[in-house]
Amino acid sequence: MSALDRRLNAFRPDLADKRLMGRVEAERFVAGEPAVIAAPVADLHSAPDAGARIDTQLLHGETIQVFERKDGWAWVQAARDGYVGYVDEAAVGRPLAAPTHLVCVPRSFVYPEPELKAPMTTVHSMGARLAVAGEAEKRGTRYALLTSGEAMIARHLCPIGRHADDFVSVAEQFLHTPYLWGGTSGFGIDCSGLVQLPMLMAGRNVPRDTDMQAEGIGAALDPENGLKRGDLVFWRGHVAIMTDGEHVIHANGHTMTVSREPLGEAIRRIEPLYGMPTGYRRLVVAL
Question: pTM score > 0.85 for this model?
Answer without folding.
Answer: yes
